[in-house]
Specification:
Oligomer: single chain
Number of strands: 4
Order of helices and strands: HHHHHEEHEHEHHH
Strand content: 5-15%
Shape: globular
Number of domains: 2
Structural class: alpha/beta
CATH superfamily of the largest domain: CRAL-TRIO lipid binding domain
Strand order of the largest sheet: 1-2-3-4
CATH architecture of the largest domain: 3-Layer(aba) Sandwich
Distance between the termini: 46 Å
Number of helices: 10
Length: about 260
């Protein structure tokens, strides 16, 4: 991490912030007003990109890209009610506790992923939402992503989705995201990992947390689908895909509460 004097850092923060504001004033549709408001009032929102980018130009570009990405996926307005209950229950992505270094941990379990066109954007938003929760809890100063690769098969692999995650999610937490851990490799995952590992941080850690918390306010997938004008056969298709995962979640929940 780069080291700056407090005076130098303050100057860089003001420079980067000024450039962002100029961009916002000329193309405000590219940014979300909530992000801009937060950026104006919180120095760490800017400083964390300077810690990574080092120069004003590079830091601005990093922050600008992230702000546009957040606007694209509606990150500032996402909340638990935006997602069907089953997405939480399956435990595809969830917030855990903290590792031994104090990093907040976000877990991902790709064995519960299926490429579902109707839910593609929603699943991406869900992953971002889980990271956003932990980033706020830790105030952007210490987070880890642990990816459990157990039981991965061809039906779980989606190269476009993997590349999307690498190029977008890591940049959303430039200094707050301290490491990503991938574990329980199969031969199938190893062949893909060998092509992509240069894009990921190298440090490794792990922690184990129960994944099945479901917010009370979330709709079921049936209600969510009907509210969003899905056809009944589309709802049934997703429920059929998710049924083995939900059954397994029920089994794990029973063991957890005993």
């Amino acid at each position: 991490m780069a080291s700056f004097s407090s005076e130098n850092m303050e100057h860089k923060i003001q420079q980067v912030r000024s450039i962002i504001m100029q961009k916002y004033e000329s193309n405000n549709e590219l940014y979300h007003e909530k992000d801009i408001e937060y950026l104006q009032n919180d120095n760490w929102t800017v400083e964390r990109y300077i810690q990574r980018g080092k120069t004003v130009d590079k830091s601005f570009q990093l922050l600008d890209n992230v702000l546009k990405f957040r606007r694209e996926i509606d990150m500032p307005v996402l909340e638990s009610v935006c997602f069907p209950r089953e997405l939480f229950k399956i435990g595809y992505a969830f917030n855990g506790g903290h590792d031994r270094q104090g990093n907040g941990v976000v877990f991902m379990r790709p064995r519960f992923y299926r490429k579902i066109k109707k839910l593609d954007r929603k699943i991406k938003q869900f992953v971002c939402y889980q990271m956003e929760i932990m980033d706020k809890k830790t105030k952007g100063r210490g987070m880890a992503i642990i990816v459990d690769l157990k039981s991965i098969g061809l039906m779980n692999l989606d190269i476009e989705y993997i590349l999307w995650g690498i190029t977008n999610l890591i940049d959303c937490c430039p200094t707050g995201l301290n490491y990503i851990m991938l574990y329980d490799f199969s031969w199938l995952v190893t062949s893909i990992w060998n092509q992509m590992k240069k894009l990921l941080p190298a440090d490794l850690e792990k922690n184990i947390i129960d994944p099945h918390h479901v917010p009370d306010e979330c709709l079921t997938l049936i209600d969510y689908g009907r509210q969003n004008d899905w056809l009944e056969k589309e709802i049934d298709h997703v429920l059929k895909l998710w049924k083995p995962f939900l059954d397994k979640a029920d089994e794990e929940i029973k063991k957890f509460v005993q």
